[in-house]
Amino acid sequence: MSDREFAGQTAIVGIGGSDFARLYRTPDPERTGEALATEAIAAAIADAGLEKSQIDGLITGGLPHYEPVAYRTGLTDVRFVVDYPQAGRMCAMALMHAATAVHHGLADYVVLFNSVVFRSQGVKFGAQPQGLLYDTIYGMASPGAQYSMGFTRYQAEYGGTEEQLGAIPVAIRSHARMTPGAIMQAEMSIDDYLASRYIAEPLRLFDYCLVNDGAVAYVVTTAERARDLAHPPVLIAGTAGRANFREWYVDLGFWDEACRSMKADLFDPLGVTTDDIDCLQVYDNFSVSVLWGLEGFGFAPKGQGLDWVQNGRIALGGELPVNTSGGMLSESYLQGWNQHAEAVRQLRGQAGERQIPDCDWSLYWCLSALPGATLLCRDGLL
Amino acid sequence: MSGGTGYLKPLPTVTAEDREFWAAAREHRFVLPKCQACGHVWFPPYASCPACLSFDRGWTEASGRGTVWGFTIMRQPYIPSFEPELPYNVVLVELEEGPMVYSNLIDIDNADVACGLPVEAVFEDATDEITLIKFRPV
Question: Tens of pLDDT along B44-70?
Fold first, then answer.
């Protein structure tokens, strides 16, 4: 269970990131993962209104090794260092670690980042050397094929059509079109979605997230210190994790138990309910991840998520906007890190034409082998 | 697709942990690791029991029967040696004994592959050393 006393004691006070669209159009192998991380760190520290010398904690992510960024940023004498391996699932874990560290005084200001160079380095998310269940000998390749298996099962249990699933990427694309720096700016209708080619049927190209370069960094400190900084603090109301290691990856219950566990950890100590949540900024590696999280966290009735997402409900202006900057399907595959940056903008009231009126609470989840979730809110609510 | 050097698709990397599994498959036997301490049956063939951590591993003959939990029809050419077969099915089979395995369904059109389909194991000799376990509808 989460600690009620810990809720709201820490905050995200700075965010920084890359121009994803420009990097996508013009991949630049000389802008290395370390260079992209350095740019994002500099931007996040400046956004917080801090001096670099005040940073005394560093959480690195996505790079082959943690030291090179320390040298390039001069963060060579910090008193708290953690390195996360390259894996999409680590954003909530890194935030959990950062918040815990500043809450307990292991560091005063932690900078944390994720940096990826998938596109310029030609990284493929296809066949693994073998896979945990001898995947490749059967031609099983790519995480998308695993989620696709989940979707055929979901359809067998609950029904629903591919056209209904398309409502998720279509809504998220409409948000990217309002986001400077988002990679996918072309309008996408449900017909465009249905015309896109199958990758692992029944999932299509537009059910899949992007593969691109970029970095995102945050600065985390205590809520008390946050109140003296440049922007309104965005409080970390809670973080939760619940592993779901399965050799075949997709949970047989569509992550229901993981979602229930994380929801209880995040919501119950605070008395928060789904009705309180103003937006979802979630891990949309594949469209179906959004569907299963909506049901698992209790926003949509079990088995009825495809009906639930129709008619603009998850688009800006709807009841529960999802991934208001375009998520990983259309803004950038920064693996949850761009979603939290957008959550911070929404909760600060800095999201421009995408701003959700009176946005108080934002929820994140990642349904993967290592599910994580975070709950962020404006100051004064806890 | 029998025998010899003509097999171009990926083959398993046989290790100390799963050597006995592949040796049995070569004899057209489908065996699963079974804990001699607690009776748990698991897959893939890790050396120790995930339930009780005992390394006292034995083997049990699988019935070869199971049901299709989920499937996908692969359309993207991720693995060059599979390209001539596109589109092909991959299934996640829930074995009668409990474990989940990936495989391919044979003797069926892709359009007829369905969740819940009862299936049984068949053995396909890929090379002199390796026999793959696939499934067909019962």
Answer: 999 999 999 999 999 999 999 999 999
Helices A337-348 and A91-103: angle between axes, nearest 10 degrees: 60
Is this prediction's ipTM beyond 0.85? yes
Whether A84 is catalytic is no
**How far is the C-alpha of B105 from the C-alpha of B88, rounded, in Å?**
9
pLDDT at residue B5, rounded to an integer: 65
Whether A333 is catalytic is yes
Neighboring chain A residues of B69 at a CB cutoff of 8 Å: 149, 153, 252
Q: Measured between CB atoms, does A186 come within 8 Å of chain B?
A: no
- Report CB contact under 8 Å: A130, B13: yes
A159 domain-assigned: no
> What is this structure's pTM?
0.97
Task: Residue A116: give the domain boundaries.
Answer: 10-122+209-378
Q: Which of A127, A133, A200 sits opposite B75 (nearest CB)?
A: A200
Q: Please give the sequence-ordered ranges of beta strands (E in DSSP) within chain B, or none if there are none.
A: 31-35, 57-61, 65-74, 88-95, 100-103, 118-125, 131-137
Residue B2, pLDDT score: 46
Chain B touched by A141 (CB under 8 Å): yes
What phi and psi values does residue A260 have, to the nearest 5 degrees?
Answer: -60, -40
Residues of chain B with C-beta less than 8 angstroms from the C-beta of A200: 72-76
Report the CATH number at residue A341.
3.40.47.10
How far is A3 from chain B, CA to nearest CA, in Å? 31
